[in-house]
Amino acid sequence: MRAKGASHLAGIIPLAHEPLDFNLDWHDSLMPIAPNYYAFERSIYECALAGCHTIWIVANDDVSPLLRHRVGDFVEDPVFLGRRNKYPSAERRQIPIFYIPLKEENRFCFSWNIIHGASTANNIAGAISKWLKPERFYISFPYGVYDPKILRAHRQSIIKEENFFLTFDDYSAQDGAFLGFTLNKDQILSCIAKYEEHENKVLFNQKIKKHLSLDKMLSDVIIDSVRVELKQYHPIDSWEKYAAYMGSDLS
To answer: What is the pLDDT of residues 96-138, one digit of tens each?
Structure first.
């Protein structure tokens, strides 16, 4: 539960995308990045460290049962787990995890995953109470590997500032990198408008790429932001990049 008067920060993890080039029997987000540690679990941990009050995983129906079996419907806030007092269990905070299906096969791209996840979180939470509607969304990608502990010192900026971006070599999600960032509810509406505009162009011009890339969706949507530079980052959206990560110090 979030404190009274606190902004609702919802974590979005986009997993209902077109297959990457691993060609394995399991979903790409189940690639191991350390012993007993999968790529999608790193994203859940990242959302929890960012201060998310809820986490929404956009995944196909054939994938969600595997994810739920692994992590369940709640995760403990790691910041509260580290506190030491007379009654530590009373200070713990559970973060609910929700699984959102995506059945529109023509929209299996990261951009629409984010839009769909944020819109669904807004509709479901808003149906319960207007006070539960998310004001901001933190997006985490399983296919960018970095140490999410850096977010611990920036929780207030993530929740309160207009926008927050992780960067590496000055690249961010605005450049198409799989790095965490935030959007507010008004910017989600702008992203929806951009996606619909793109779909209309594809409808009348088949030469245009079907899916809207992340950098194009975010262009002109976000002007100012708090930006935090990472010391290490490895994308793992292909076998070649995954092999480079496994041979790095970060692994």
So the answer is: 999 999 877 667 889 999 999 999 999 998 888 877 889 999 9
Q: Is 213 helix (H, G, I), strand (E, B) or coil?
A: coil
Contact assessment for residue 98 and residue 121, using Cβ atoms and an 8 Å cutoff = yes
Inter-CA distances, 214 with 25, 122, 169, Å: 27, 21, 18
- End-to-end CA distance of the chain, in Å? 33
Q: The pTM is what?
A: 0.91
131, 174 Cβ separation under 8 angstroms: no
Hey, what are 42's tokens? Answer: 């790193």
- Angle value at C-alpha 166, between 148 and 185, nearest 5 degrees: 105
Residue 18: how many CB atoms within 10 A of its CB?
Answer: 11
Residue 54, strand partner residues: 10
Task: Give the span between the Cα atoms of 157 and 161, in whole angstroms.
Answer: 5
- Any idea what DSSP says for residue 83? -
**Strand 144-145 and strand 226-229: pairing?**
unpaired
